[in-house]
Amino acid sequence: MASAALARPGPIAAAISVPVTGASNWRTEPSGRVIAGMGQPSPSGGRKGRDHGQAGPAASSWAGQSRVPHMAPGPSRGPMTPSPGTPPARAALYVDFDNVFSSLAALDEWAAWSFASEPGRWLAWLEAGAGGQPRRLLVRRCYLNPAGWHAPEPGGDLAAWVQQPRIYYSRFRADFVRAGIQVVDCPRLARLKNGADMVMALDILDALAHPTRFEEFLILSGDSDFTPLLHRLRAHDRHSLVVTHPLSAAAFRASADAVIGFEDFAEAALTEQPAAAPAARQPTTAAPDALPDPGEPAAQRRAILALLRRLVAESAGPLHLPGLGKRIHDLGAWVRQSRFGGAGTLARLVEGAEGLVLEAGPGGGWLYDPARHERPSERQPGLSDDPLDRLLAALHAALGPGQEVPRLGPEELDFALQRLAGMLPLAAPPGPEERAALVAEGSTAGLDLPAPAVEALIAWLTRARINWQDPPEAGTPARLARAVFAEITRRAAATGARLAPETVAALRAWIGLPAPPGAETAVEEPPPA
Q1: What spatial distance separates the first Cα and last Cα of the chain, rounded to whole Å?
Q2: Listed residue (203, 212, 220, 210) closest to 256, CA to CA
Q3: Which residues are 239's β-sheet partners?
């Protein structure tokens, strides 16, 4: 494969930012080495990092002004550079989940949540060529401690949304599996160590002898203990790209061919569509809401609140937080670096602000003007008044994608359970013929039983491990209903979600189960696996 031969630079004294297409840019060091990255360029200069003391011009985007991944001096090869007609590089990906999640959470808890719950976004961004050239990720492994956990910042947006003191990493296993990533369990071996770094290193060394010659190794971790491993990869003439903390050990960053900082990786994790690496240098326009850093924390808070008031005033209804967060950060990199002008979180910034109220809810919550807008909890924007819609929205927020609850009314659900009980015994779960017959029976009875909803209902019963070979009895429909209820609540608990008491009550009523007398209806947080 062709690669750009670049001279090994000396210490970085300053950087010249050159704007390019979209959200990406190239940075040229005085030595002439070209650095690929994401984010808007901004003046160089030192600032104090939140927890890392004084940083000078050589510091990363988190400590300084530039949002470009920090590329420390490395081997003379430089990052992989595509040539016309070159096929995607054969690559292997290794993710130290606990390290990446905790590091991202220190920068932005929503970035950590997005990284863990929607890995397909940043996976596509890496495959498109971030930090080098397009690549095929032939090996995708994530090393995770299932009993590990993160405590959301008290009073923060994430804490208000998940409504539990801990987020267990095991809840994200299914998200990574659905993205085609192999999850390797690394339980804790000692009080503070889970052995993930050692298992990763051994797997990477094994991959060097794999019949498929992997041309590039991608390592997502801020652990500088991987420095000797990077030396070994270089000795075997393999390219390496690390996604790490900008202030990780200089030796670690210098040993890689390409480096992407966690803050820039967070931008990729949060974008609606992963941004591909730029193909050519072209001028870019600043975000429409971009604003120079006011400097003083009080002025920063006033600038952010002014934008929020303008957006709320222009909106006919409450604003959904995920989309609003993107507009806030369009003000500039200083919003994230200053942590909302020293407020820490958006909730703390808005607290007490005149004309603005922040309310948590499924999907992140809403911001609204109580004098102009109806309270979101009384009427969620974009959600009908149908109790079934509200129930399904709450369950979707708790279960996540890929765990769809059948969209059937109570009458249709009872009809389907009755007919499924009448089909027993079956050698296997109902197949296409049985499902089609059930849909036809519902139509004859004047009920709407969409085929996808019937399929989803059968999937939930199968997950609940009911025995399809049992003969039907008088109580079989109720037994199937209890199985669906138990499996939905169990899955919600397994993800670390806590269903609100009213959601559990609505779920019971929808399935047709009476509320247990004197029993607690809320599903409590499960213990760690």
Answers
A1: 45
A2: 220
A3: 216
Q: List the chain pLDDT tens, one digit each, 529 residues.
A: 443 333 333 332 333 233 333 333 434 333 333 344 443 333 333 333 333 333 333 333 333 333 334 434 444 345 566 666 678 999 999 999 999 998 888 878 888 888 998 899 899 999 998 888 899 999 999 999 988 888 887 666 777 677 677 888 988 999 999 999 999 998 877 655 678 889 999 999 999 999 999 999 999 998 889 999 999 999 999 999 999 987 788 899 999 999 998 888 887 655 443 333 333 333 334 445 677 888 888 888 888 888 888 888 888 778 766 556 657 767 777 776 777 788 777 767 777 788 888 775 544 467 788 888 777 655 544 444 567 877 887 787 777 666 778 888 899 999 999 999 999 999 889 988 898 899 889 888 888 888 888 998 999 999 899 999 988 888 899 999 999 999 998 888 877 667 788 888 999 999 998 877 655 444 444 444 4
Helix 432-444 × helix 410-423 angle, to 10°: 130
- What's the CA gap between 126 and 116, in Å, rounded? 15
SS3 102: helix
Structure tokens at 108: 């932005």
In 249-364, beta strands by DSSP E = 258-261, 319-320, 357-359
Q: Exposed/middle/buried for 153, CB within 10 Å: 0-12, 13-18, 19+?
A: middle
Which among 389, 288, 273 has a CA at the least distance from the CA of 332?
A: 288
CA distances in angstroms from 441 to 416, 453, 472, 509, listed in the order given: 9, 14, 19, 24
Whether residue 499 contacts residue 489, with contact meaning beta carbons closer than 8 Å, is answered with yes
Select from 283, 258, 250 the least CA-distant residue to 6.
258
DSSP 381-442: TT--S-HHHHHHHHHHHHH-TT-PPP---HHHHHHHHHHHHHH-S-SSS--HHHHHHHHHHH
Please tell me the pTM assigned to this model: 0.45
The CA distance from 245 to 242, in Å, is 10
